[in-house]
Please model this.
Amino acid sequence: MRKMPRFTFIGHALRGDGPFRPVVSYDTYGKPSSVGDSYLVAYPRESDIKFARRCEVAFYASPLYRVTSKFVSYISAKPVQREINPELLKVVYEDADGKGNNADVFWQDFMIEAKARGSMLLLVDMPSNLPDNLQTQLSERAAPFWTPIAPELLTDYEIADDGKFDFAEFGGTYKDAKGETTPCTWHFDRELWSCIDKEDRTVAEGLHPLGECPILIFTEAGDFPHYGPFSPVADLSKRLFNLDSELDEILRSQTFSLLTMQVPDGSTDEQRLEAAKVVGETIGASNLMMHSGSTPAFIAPADGPANVYLERINDLRGEIRDIGLEVATINQRESGIAMQMRFQSINSELGRFSIRMEGMEARVWELTGRWLGITEEPMIAWPRDFNIADPEQELDILQSMQASAMPLEVIIEQQKRVVMVQFNGLDAEDQEAMLSSLDNGRSA
Model:
């Protein structure tokens, strides 16, 4: 059995579950007593009870999902051009996963999972007991389903020289004859599929006509397994998770002042205990320090440690935003050339990922057609240019061109640039109408 702990960790960081949501156990009095798996690191000599209390109030906001979702939103804002003719393929487009999600919605979710890890798998599977006629197939959606599979779910696999699976196995469930859901291992290879129960018995199997394993591999670059450029955000998220918890602990210890009571010099232990009892019953303080002589100088800790933690937390969040290529991190005080280069890097990364997705969708449609015996494949084209830029900077450039009395043709081209940047998410036809109005001399 092969395990992929790195993908498992990234999956937890993306979803914010598992050890990022530690389960705390409580004693008979309702107080936290112990904790299960947690990505929080216990302090040296920290008791189980205190660590459980820290896990109880820990929070995790999933920075990996935030930056990945933002990245995917730029791609999703640009429509994918498709020309699908066969009716059965249109049915698949309208309901790609059998859950009512069309292909565009399906790919949005798939891209978030794939961008976070750098790798993702997709099973193109066909339901059994197909109807005999096309109309029934269309009405009952008797067509292949697209199922995303996280790489960490793989239990075993082998990849051939062509970069495709010779076979792949992953954990799942199946419904037995009684309709009950039972854990199993699904096996797919280049010729057959099978379902193996926990007693290692084959409970279902069959041949398929594809000539290759129906589990397709997507990677951002290179061979599987590949960890993408966003995967370090998972590591930074774990450190941020701990820093936030440690800062909370510092604030909890610094926020409440320590009650002190001065007792006469030479007081006996019995006198001090009696005095503490009277004060505790009168004031109701749970923490009390008694002293003799002058008042202790250290009552409330300084805020220096908390400020150091805040600075480190802000630094980590800045690193996460930089790795995530967030446009908001671009410093407006940077030079125009530096800003342009950073925007160009973002556009290049978006275009590269979009091209990989186009290739992935083409392979999925090809496999879908093989299941159905359809040779006519859809024509698809994912966007290439995303025009992510700073509208204010482009307007400043336009004003400088106008002030310099540059030729009208040059100014119109810059006006087009402003329109494309400002209305980047607009429908292609509406955007084209705006650009045409500039060519026709109707601009102000």
Summary: The radius of gyration is 31 Å. The chain has a mean pLDDT of 80. The chain is about 45% helix and 20% strand. Residues 233-302 form one domain.
